[in-house]
Amino acid sequence: MNNSVENRFFAIVCGALLVFVAPLFVLFLFLSSERADKEIRDHISVLLVANAQALAKPLWDLDEDSVTQISATVVSQGAIVKVEVRDQSGQLDVSQSTIPRSFDGKLVQVSRAIIYNTVDGPKNLGSISVYYPALGLFSGLKQEEVVFISIFIFAVLTVFGTALIGNRFFVIQPLMRLTAAIEATRQLGSRHHVDWQSNDEMGRLAHSFNEMQTKLESEEKELKLAHRRATDIYNLTPAMLFSLDEEDRITAVSDYWLLATGYHRAAVIGRNFADLVTPATRDKFVKRRQAESGMTVTVKFVCLDGRTMDVLIMESEAGAGAQDHLSLSVMTDVTELKASEDRNHRQAITDHLTGLLNRQGFEAVLDNKIAAADAAGQELACLFVDLDRFKWINDNMGHAAGDTALVELVERLKTHLAPSDEAARLGGDEFAILLPAKDAENRAKVMCEQIASIFETPFAPDMHLSASVGIAIYPHHAETAAELLQKSDMAMYAKKRDGKNGAQLFDNAMLDRARSRAEIEANIEAGLVDNWFEAFLQPIVTLNGRGIAGFEALMRLNHPQKGLMPPAEIISVAEETAKIVRVGNVIMEKAIANLAKISRISGMQDTYLAINFSPLQFEPALPARLAAIVGRHGIRPERIVVEITEAVLMHDNPQIRLIVTELRRFGCRIALDDFGTGYSSLSYLNRFPVDIIKIDQSFTRAINDGDDDVRQKSRMLIEGITTLSHKMNCTVIAEGIETEEECRTLHQMGLDYGQGYLFHRPQHAATLIDELTASQSAVARAS
């Protein structure tokens, strides 16, 4: 209560009295004291004048009795309490006093000289001194002044008391009631009102307070109702809701959350939410919540019974800007969705036929395997496996048989894989295998031997397969995943070119070949765009008279800087990149145009043109395209010979067979090139409408071989082929004739035509036309 309003008011009033009233009262007392002191001094002055004259004669006469009597008279006057009379000569000293012994106050002295008039004039005989008590502030007050002061003090006290009483009744009392209402509201929680009514400020204050309490009470009821409704919604919503404070402690959970997780509310309130998340995903949750105010994260939640479920947590700040940074989060069970996503992901990275990784999955695993190999201080071998002749199985035995073979292959392969190995089907009949090991090269060689053993047993009756395997080692051959896969692929293609069915370890020379191949690809594309391709012609002659019967069109690429480039590599790369179709169309167009020019030379009207066709060129549009070209140049169809190799026939593709039949029906003749170098050549003569058989030049060179056994067998083969061909009404042409002896021997064996450097080399059409024209002119002049 020391700081109460009443005490402060009392202190203010007292302070006002001390500051304003007390100084005035003191001033009044001081003036009264001064006035009384002046009156006493004036009285004493008059008295001293009279008594100084009365003492002059007795003091002159040294009449001590008279002096004593006069002094006694003086000391009895008014306020004088002591008188001293002294002779200047020191002979007489009279003192009279009425001061009581208990007096300890201050005395005021007033003195006057005693003068006696003699014949000789005035003489100072001595002095008289009187003493009176010093007056205090109250000593000089008169009775009427004391009455006035009493009335003034009474009035001041009355005003002061009235102010205190008024303050208590009109200020303190309503404030106490207001304070009591506020305290009761604070302690009891209910809205108490002030029981005070008046028309003054306190009344208006009490009225405003009561109105505020009424309004707050109404708002509290609405808030409680809203809170109850929110709580009901929070608990009845079929979603796992929970709230966290700024320290990630659980402050509230919904009934549905408790039902789904199995926990009791008392057991989880105040608990850190991260404690309910599996250790594997706990850091993810903590870091995400620290980084984001309204996070979305998927973690694994541990239920009361130990069951783990994948949950998606979406958080929003519920107390933004407040001291209690509470959050409202929705936890959704996404276990099934996560499992579905995992299944979809596995399906996305898994080959549906074999169950191995597909290319996408393999590329993802390859990076991880390289990182694991680095961490373990190991090497990593990548085996690129491509099946040989698998397309033939699909084309001849059906895709179902091919799929069955692939599944069986994978089952056999899995028996040789270690748990740390990884296998994938990259597509079609291409596979990749990763082998981590300290000595990855030796491990790869062992695996290649095991892969070779897989193919020893047929996958079905008459279904024999083999594989070409390329090997690249990390980090010796490659530094990245893409480079490792690329170089193993390059090694596999190198094995394919070297004869298939085996393994090939990558070496840097393959990069040179790859660059060379890339350069050839660029030259092919540039040649098609800039018209660098030429159709050279090599005459085919009769062996008995060596007259020109026809011409074989041969592809040449005439590079502006490099000149004529070897055709074998260009054809090989063009077939691998499927650009052989475009190249073949250009050569076919130019060769037929050249034949039309040659046909204008006398004696060349019936010569034919043999055109080589790659298997890729046998498109449905080929017969129509060929018919349009020969029609445009006025060439009879029977003058066109379509040369096919055994590689075309080996596909046994119904579409190729249909196109060949269509060309034959159109009038073109069919020639089987390089006869005797492939598989089952004689069966093709029976199944395809072949008109011309071209014996490969390897047989031509062997007929005069120094080894008698080789020479004898070669001649027997050529004679047999010629005899069978003639019986089937087929013309036989020998390729690669370079000597007169070869020509004579072949003619004796009954062959019809020959082709080789002995007769003519392949030439540019313009040069050949000039030679033929000059030859005809020479014959004409000789005749």
UniProtKB/TrEMBL annotation:
Gene Ontology CC terms: membrane
Keyword Cytoplasm appears in the UniProt entry: no
Domain HAMP: 169-221
Molecular function terms, GO-annotated: catalytic activity
Species of provenance: Rhizobium sophorae
Pfam family, one: HAMP
SUPFAM superfamilies: EAL domain-like, HAMP domain-like, Nucleotide cyclase, PYP-like sensor domain (PAS domain)
NCBIfam families recorded: GGDEF, sensory_box
Any one Gene Ontology BP term: signal transduction
InterPro entries membership: Biofilm_reg_signaling (IPR052155), EAL_dom (IPR001633), EAL_sf (IPR035919), GGDEF_dom (IPR000160), HAMP_dom (IPR003660), Nucleotide_cyclase (IPR029787), PAS (IPR000014), PAS-like_dom_sf (IPR035965)
Domain GGDEF: 378-508
PANTHER family, alphabetized: BIOFILM ARCHITECTURE MAINTENANCE PROTEIN MBAA, DIGUANYLATE CYCLASE DGCP
Residue ranges of domain EAL in the record: 517-776
Span of domain PAS: 226-287
Alphabetical UniProt keywords: Membrane, Transmembrane, Transmembrane helix
Protein name: EAL domain-containing protein
TM annotation in the entry: 6-31, 146-166
Superkingdom to which the source organism belongs: Bacteria
